[in-house]
């Protein structure tokens, strides 16, 4: 092999300087240092071959090669400095390993019932509804009588109501008008708001309710949201539209609703509202018991007697009302199987939401 | 109420080509929910009819019986625990290997060394009934060894749930009428004509309490031969979960399931004198058909003869007047009782029957003759009864449904759909209404079996449910702006919850019920509302404070593997007022932190930090949300550690407490060291903060650290109040950031270090100015609380 193959030093220097200037980080730069100045670098090779040259050429060639080597080393040093800019000397000794996991700020969690309640309030506020609370202990009058459920009415059986005992005798007075109960539904608020405010009324009332019942889908204290709209010319179609909007806002744009006749003493006509199943989208699955639909609420046009009890003229005004279980909707939304799990108050449960 | 409707039986009244699934959907969407479709006969492969030859107790058992069964030519031995085993009865037998409708496979087994070659089945196991009430007895007549499906052919049963306003639907005819309306199809001519030429009635009827009994009909029949009812009737009764008893009883039951009118049959020869419908006399007793004697009270209605009660009106008959194998003369009762009274009596005696569940929903008196005539016809057909005597009846105030006037366009207007009056008229006619044109509008008279349709909105429902609500448009109400809101919005609750969450507390929702002996914790009233009907004795009162509940939640979490929990609750408590008045129901905000088991793990410093964090959280919350200030006083509070508790005040009013749970109470709760706080949220909500902008000073602030020592027992607050009391106008803020006890201060004293911030809005402060102010502050501290500057 002859020494005809000569490194083009100018070209080599140009390439090296370009690559060094473009090195993105310390590791790339180190690779370039080895490639251009290491033992196996082309330039080292060139220098080691100087001995094969005639003496008159050896000196000149040596100077040229060393000039290139110096230029490369300078470029390497310069690039090291450049990469340190912004960190300077701090980048070394004071470097912090930021590949550690981030430290989250300490933050608590809202209960799933609260999250759903807040979502519902927001949806109805968007439709122009007021939001109000109300008393959890209420009278028989507001809980039943004024809602068109007189004494002895069979519908009363379905409420499994808790009665407040007389403070002295400990006995309930089931007959007195003033008899107190733990409200078994949020519907008493219909009457309370009608008494306080002339139409138009648009309001929702979320809150706790109580019934004597306990199993996987019932606890004695749970939550409902009641809605009421009273004005001239309100229709079943308005009720349908409102609930359809709600179902989509709550469960997703693609949800459909289905209305089915039902019976409640305080509405006429009365409806049960189903939403297309959240799991199977209507095809039929375990959650919807193969029906494709899930019942989410009861609703209807406010019964004329209820309007009268609220002091509103049923010949001039009509209204609709609806009520739904917040806990049940939270269970549907978050896939909670057992309602009791929501009220064991294990923080590990709450922290999932 | 759920009811079983046999498809086979239903065809008696209406022509139906539709599948059960389609009928179920149509009924459900028009208001009668079909919960389930039961396939009778499916999964019965291999089940045969067997006759019980002999039954004896399994040796060593007090309830298991070993049965010797005849199955055609064969003998089979099985063991059963059913209570209703009688030799001679035909029963369904599943030999080993049979797969039951519930998916279970029957095997050969041994019970206490006694071999059992299969299983005798209940109606539940066969999928006929949802109740477990013993072996399904198929009567005594008939052959053994034949497949069960020969005795009970295939059928499909709709399990329907009717609404409480429609007791007229609790029968096959009622469901048929609904389907007739839905499909616009006629009701068949389904019944014959009973013979009623038996002469004058030998029995008199008198109603003494016609407020509780609107109508009573008694029909006398002679020549009855009591025995098993025919197989078609037994089959239909079994298909809907009823147990056949005898032709006389079955006829009444069948007619009820057909027409919806409950009916009863007395043995005429066991009655003494005429029938009187009256309230019970106090202390009167009735031995009922279920074998139990009940003592009656005067608000209960009875059917009586001269000797005393023979039936509890609308609920159950008496045993002494019941038909038996020897009965030949019967009296058929068809009556209408006041629903609320039947319901009250049924509840008081804890006795519900097929009759009472229908009566309590208030039946129409016009159903009475329909049911009565049908029983007579059936008894003549299946029990050899002769012609009925003239009906003995009291019906003082006949009840006729009145027409309801509806103005033109009303129905379509309420529905919000373009339903014209012609369509309304057609729909109502299909539902059995009589409709006539009125000026203006129309007049509709409900059919005679319905009591639930009273006003125009009820007609809206009839039309709406028949047409279906899913085709009407979706619109939104309200072009008019609501008036200003009257009730306060819960916005401030959400703001408070956000602050608590931001401070690292998880939300809990604790049940409002507490035990009557729950120990007192906190500063709020202790008189609690009591429940008349609690679910459990330790849930019989309503909470007045959140603190014990929060402490228990923390203890529960620590015990189940989540120590160090930080929780909050915002909820109502109940403070009773005068009897009959609504209680005061303030919302309270509670906070709690679990620290750990007492001992060296939890240092006093850690407790101090946690307590001050609770205090700081509440101060911040009150400060952010309201215009009032949280005040506190370090005093003993019931249920809290006496040296580590604060009473809280808002606007001068008692507003809660904060502290470490008292060690004794903690021990009672099996709790570690926890710190808790609760604040009455109502004053916060009632005094919202409206921030007012104030210009920010552009001149630099001067910070000075002020280190002093004070006598050990001097509360930090005294030092702060003293500094603030000097009223230096350039003093912007006082921040107490360190408390020190130890060698560097004299015994009996402690060190306090403040950071004082001085700033003026109009100029840059000079060092001299600040030093002079600082000197005045120190002077005041020395004079007022015996403070000394610390080197």
Q: How would you sum up this structure, described in words?
A:
The complex is a heterodimer of chains A (353) and B (791). With 353 residues, chain A is α+β, with helices and mostly antiparallel strands. Chain A has twelve helices and ten strands. Chain A has a seven-stranded mixed beta sheet, with helices on both faces. Chain A has a three-stranded antiparallel beta sheet with strand order 2-4-3. In chain A, helix 1 packs parallel to helix 4 (55-84), helix 2 packs antiparallel against helix 4 (55-84) and helix 6 (112-126) packs across helix 11. The longest helix of chain A is centred in the N-terminal third of the chain and has 30 residues, at 55-84. The model of chain A has no long low-confidence stretch (mean pLDDT 88). Chain B is α+β, with helices and mostly antiparallel strands and 791 residues long. Chain B is 25% helix and 26% strand. Chain B is built from 19 helices and 37 strands. In chain B, helix 18 (716-725) crosses helix 19.
Structural category of chain A: alpha+beta
Radius of gyration of chain B: 40 Å
The biggest beta sheet of chain A reads:
7 strands, mixed
**DSSP summary: helix tally of chain B:** 19
The whole-number mean of residue pLDDT values of chain B reads: 93
Run of helices and strands of chain A: HHHHHHEEHEEHEEHEEEHEHH
| Helix proportion of chain B | 25-40%
* Largest β-sheet summary of chain B: 7 strands, mixed
Q: What is the count of β-strands of chain B?
A: 37
Helix amount of chain A, in percent? 25-40%
Shape of chain B: elongated
In terms of DSSP E residues, the strand content of chain B is 25-35%
Low-pLDDT stretches of chain B are none
Rg from Cα of chain A: 40 Å
**Strand order within the widest sheet of chain B?**
25-28-29-33-32-31-30
Category from helices, strands and their pairing of chain B: alpha+beta
Cα shape of chain A: rod-shaped
In angstroms, what separates the terminal alpha carbons of chain B? 86 Å
The counted number of beta strands of chain A is 10
